Amino acid sequence: MTFDRTVPDVYLHIGDEIRKRGSGGTYDHVFPGNGEIQGPVPMGGADDVSDAVRCGQQAFPAWRAWKPADRARVLRRLAELMERDTDELARLSVLDNGMTQVMSRPLVEIMTAWTAYYAGWADKIEGRVTSVPAHQRELAYAIPEPYGVVGVILTWNGPVVSVGMKLIPALAAGNTVVLKPSELTPYATEHLMRLVREAGIPEGVVNLVLGGPEAGDALVRHPLVQKVSFTGGPATARRILAACAESLKPAVLELGGKSANLIFPDADVDSAVTTNAGTVCCTLAGQGCAIPTRMLVHRDIYDEVAEKVVAMVSALRCGDPLDPATLVGPVVTRAARDRITGMIERAPGEGATLLAGGGAPRDVPPNGFYVEPTVFGDVDPTSELGQVEVFGPVLSLMRFTTEDEAIEMANATRYGLASYIYTNDLGRVNRLATQLQAGGVYVNGAQPVTGHELPFGGVGISGFGREGGHEGLFEFLRTKAVAVA
Ligand code: NAD
Fold first, then answer.
1. Considering only CA atoms, which residue is closest to atom 1 of ligand 1?
2. Residues 164-180: what's their mean pLDDT?
């Protein structure tokens, strides 16, 4: 069956209004698979953001006063609509950023699962009553309250997943939201906005401003926005945090990673190789924040692992994401491709050994933004490849001798999003889990994000704040103390 390449007209959704034009002009959306312009996207500017925030502010008292069970009901309905429209959302996700079809459907399913999960939380938010009536108080209690209008800024690699991680818990907690996806990925998010309305979520509770950095900056700085939740790169995060500092506004920042996978001789090597190499090359062509891009291998099994990784990666061809058999699609923009190939070209000069790939990909559509899946061996942990996030299908192998050395190498970057371990020694798992500096530790193939009941987030320049579990819900609640004498 041929892939339906029709792109929808997309609009800004502000209160009860659908805006065909934004004050930020128009963006010509490019399909990464062939470099062709797919269609114009209206860009919101500061005026649109201001209107959207005001709508969110107006809608907040009524939405907050909704019975929690009713909030749960409409969010469950939203999850049902996401499920109903899985095919369309997956199709739009491919057109958004050129992700493969193999990837697009599972990501929609992950978002739906997160939505159903947080729908369940909406009527289970509780405070606490203190047991000691100190200072003559008869009654003292703490109650969680929503913030008001929350600004949610998404990046382009997996916007539907971020919707499940950010928008839904914010709504479950009783906030209203102004949502700003990346200018590079408008389609799936705009479709979701239509589902928000169909689910019966009142106008103004969710407002969608398509747009770029200007709209994002206006959203962060708006005085009525009480909290910011952002996914993107550390450079943008610094600008956002600086803007938040002016009004002392809190923020959740989910940033990048340089995650290590520690593979010990007692591990299931085949499983480690398949999961690691497959994740780095096939997950959004390496454009995933938590993927294990540094494979730290014990020297006793290094050669075996390297040989198997090379065999696997060499068999992966990048190609057209409109072909359902493609496992490695394009990266998001020409600039991203050039940045990644620059890193590949510089790596041998810093001592890395090219083991696979590294050249121009063959048999790909002309003018698309493709990068050949690439493996480097004996990467110097202090080199660019050992330190800087590539965000492309490039895997670095490093060898270690002792457990302590492995921990030191794993922790020797400024990032700290995820760490992975392959071993069958439970004592080692427990030792390493304590010592690895990362927001999450995943053992023998366990993956972050797919488990919405656990918190996900970073340490160091991977950011702060958590998404998932009750921690992710409580990012959108602040606690008020009430004492009655
Ligand atoms: P980016 O940081 O440039 O942009 C992300 C979003 O921020 C976009 O919506 C953009 O329009 C907006 N933006 C840009 N400038 C802004 C400003 N000054 N104020 C407010 N908003 C602004 O995106 P990028 O760097 O291309 O994204 C890739 C990065 O995102 C990678 O480093 C990746 O690891 C990270 N990422 C992290 C996670 C996570 O959950 N931790 C998930 C996906 C991607």
1. 232
2. 98
